[in-house]
């Protein structure tokens, strides 16, 4: 369906997008850069969900929509499905991808002065994690845009305490 | 002959408003075909179970509705008296494809009127070929 672009183009585009917003447009204002990137993801997710729900019957409830994101939507974007879905049955879902494609080629530089701490608790605070998290605002926005177009307002955040697995936490707004 | 095709966003209308809105929509809708006044609705297929509710009844026209997963409604108004179900479904399928392409335009603002000329041309082609298959 439609024209395709090579994956390396997407990778380069994402890298450049994060780099432009973090170092150029909103240099020294990472929160603003993050919000802008997430907003771009939101629009993309919105439009993609329109396209990928085209031939399907309508979803009966939130769980169906989340399952759609985990299976068909994720397959269209990343050629694989979400590996693990958890919920607390009270509006929070955790979508775990054991090898998130857009982080797969990122290395953590071990020669840097503040070396990457191995302990997960420290890692979350480290600069490496912060740098990496900038790349996750875009996919979080995509998920948020797709769900909101399906009538499910939510907040989406990412959790990388367990690389190369990446978890997306979706909290549905009541 | 199709007199009007319209795309409606995801606000929901009450029964009474529907007729007025439909009038309004008819007048402001896509520059595809000439518009006339309203109609009786002869239920609309949607992608899933339920047909769209009864629109305002009138004499000469048929109105079809289609509801997408993203709560966008397509309204089709036609003066044909014997329209085949499969033709309408086909029409809406092609129309949906054109709509998705128009909405994927990064310069399109969600919620605002679609201003793409390509979209208008595609819809025009779909409309023109609507009658032909039903002979």
From TrEMBL, chain A:
Highest taxon above the source species: Eukaryota
An individual GO BP term: endoplasmic reticulum to Golgi vesicle-mediated transport
Coiled coil: none
Transmembrane segment boundaries: none
CDD domains per the UniProt record, alphabetical: TRAPPC6A_Trs33
Gene Ontology, cellular component aspect: cis-Golgi network; trans-Golgi network; TRAPP complex
InterPro entries per the UniProt record, alphabetical: NO_sig/Golgi_transp_ligand-bd, TRAPP_component, TRAPPC6/Trs33
Family matches, as Pfam families: TRAPP
Membership in a protein family: Belongs to the TRAPP small subunits family. BET3 subfamily.
UniProt xrefs under PANTHER family: GEO08327P1 (PTHR12817:SF0), TRAFFICKING PROTEIN PARTICLE COMPLEX SUBUNIT 6B (PTHR12817)
Protein name per the record: Trafficking protein particle complex subunit 6B
Automatic annotation (TrEMBL), chain B:
One Pfam family in the UniProt entry: Sedlin_N
GO-annotated cellular components: cytoplasm
SUPFAM superfamilies found in the cross-reference section: SNARE-like
GO biological process: one example: endoplasmic reticulum to Golgi vesicle-mediated transport
Coiled coil residues, start to end: none
Domain of life according to the entry: Eukaryota
UniProt similarity note: Belongs to the TRAPP small subunits family. Sedlin subfamily.
Protein's recorded name: Trafficking protein particle complex subunit 2-like protein
Organism whose genome encodes this protein: Linum tenue
Lineage: Eukaryota, Viridiplantae, Streptophyta, Embryophyta, Tracheophyta
